[in-house]
């Protein structure tokens, strides 16, 4: 079946929210309580959140879909980082944030993640971004290998809150464009 990478629109919101809720736990480190994951999903990946993301002119929401089925998604943010600590760590003047990047478990190794990343880089570069940065769990070896392979070097660290738990020392990566 052919997979198409495209900009999400209002018709994708419900499916995208359910996909995000299903894939987010796959990236969480062991030991995160289910209630904390559920709290994060409700506060960040709900239908209402995706309605805002799709409507926000500073965000680009991409989906990789096959028919009605979403196989992967990414969210790019063109506004500056909210944390001065992250801003100080970044090496480019106009970086965009790769805020979300999730691929269905059964698509791992299919090349879909690489194709989606190529589209992310193309969009940010065409819009004038000098780099792309992201935060990733330090224990997520699969994601860290993927980002390293795609040119994202480690430039710093940050905190990440999931429900009532704050993870310290999460990795900040950046790729120059």
How do the helices and strands line up, and which of them pair or pack?
Elements lengths: L3 E4 L5 H11 L10 H11 L2 H9 L3 E8 L2 E9 L6 H6 L5 E9 L8 H15 L4 E6 L4 H9 L3 E10 L2 E12 L1
Parallel strand pairs: 4-5
Antiparallel strand pairs: 1-2, 2-3, 3-4, 5-7, 6-7
Describe the protein.
By secondary structure, the chain is an alpha+beta fold. The chain has a single domain (4-176), classed as Aminopeptidase. The protein is 34% helix and 33% strand. It contains six helices and seven strands, in the order βαααββαβαβαββ. It has helices at 13-23, 34-44, 47-55, 84-89, 112-126, 141-149, and strands at 4-7, 59-66, 69-77, 95-103, 131-136, 153-162, 165-176. Strands 1-2-3-4-5-7-6 form a seven-stranded mixed β-sheet, sandwiched between helices. Strand 4 (95-103), helix 5 and strand 5 form a beta-alpha-beta unit. The protein is globular and about 40 Å long. It starts with a strand and ends with a strand. The mean pLDDT is 94.
What key attributes describe this structure?
6 helices; 177 residues; alpha+beta; single chain; Aminopeptidase; seven-stranded mixed beta sheet; 33% strand
Strand adjacency order, main sheet: 1-2-3-4-5-7-6
User: Mean of residue pLDDT?
Assistant: 94
- Shape, per Cα inertia axes: globular
Over all CA atoms, what is the radius of gyration? 15 Å
Q: How do the SSEs run, as a string of H and E?
A: EHHHEEHEHEHEE
What top-tier CATH class fits best? Alpha Beta
Number of β-strand runs = 7
Query: CATH superfamily, please?
Result: Gcn5-related N-acetyltransferase (GNAT)
- The number of distinct helices, counting runs of at least 4 residues, comes to 6
């Amino acid at each position: 079946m052919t997979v198409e990478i495209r900009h999400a629109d209002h018709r994708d919101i419900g499916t995208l929210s359910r996909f995000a809720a299903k894939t987010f736990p796959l990236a969480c480190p062991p030991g995160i309580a289910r209630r904390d994951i559920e709290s994060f999903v409700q506060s960040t990946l709900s239908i209402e959140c995706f309605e805002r993301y799709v409507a926000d002119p500073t965000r680009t929401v991409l989906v990789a879909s096959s028919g009605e089925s979403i196989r992967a998604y990414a969210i790019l943010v063109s506004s500056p980082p909210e944390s001065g600590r992250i801003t100080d760590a970044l090496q480019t003047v106009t970086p965009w944030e790769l805020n979300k990047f999730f691929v269905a478990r059964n698509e791992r190794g299919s090349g879909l993640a690489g194709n989606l990343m190529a589209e992310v880089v193309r969009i940010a570069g065409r819009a004038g971004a000098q780099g792309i940065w992201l935060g990733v769990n330090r224990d997520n070896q699969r994601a860290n290998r993927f980002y390293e392979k795609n040119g994202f070097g480690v430039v710093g660290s940050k905190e990440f809150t999931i429900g009532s738990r704050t993870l310290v020392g999460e990795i900040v990566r950046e790729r120059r464009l």
